[in-house]
Amino acid sequence: MLKDSAYVRAILVDFTKAFDIADHTVLMPKLAELQLRGNIYNWIGSFLSARQQVCRLNGTVSKLKSFNLGFVQGSGLGSTLFLVLSQD
Fold first, then answer.
1. What does the pLDDT profile of the chain (88 residues) look like in tens digits?
2. Of 3, 15, 44, 53, whose Cβ has the fewest other Cβ atoms within 10 Å?
3. Angle at 83 between CA 25 and CA 39, to 5 degrees
4. Where are the domains of the chain?
5. How far, in Å, CA of 30 to CA of 26, rounded?
6. Contact 18, 73 (CB under 8 A)
7. E-strand spans in the chain?
8. Is the model's pTM score more than 0.70?
């Protein structure tokens, strides 16, 4: 393109952190609208709530930290929940 024009434009989008910032308080009402069968809604809410993590580096373990954002990386449910969250 530089041969034919003086400028080249590019748009780059990085979705690698998209799963880390998903807000459960926004997601749960959207799931409620789907009218999921049985206790599936409650199970998903339980899966997302009261999550905690620690970090281990060179044998040292950090304090337990609670968080209420994002989805479990690598879970089969994470991708589906992200699609529900981003559908509008």
1. 667 777 878 888 766 666 666 778 888 899 999 988 889 999 988 888 878 888 899 999 999 888 777 777 777 887 788 888 888 7
2. 3
3. 60
4. 18-86
5. 7
6. no
7. 51-53, 56-57, 60-61, 65-67
8. no
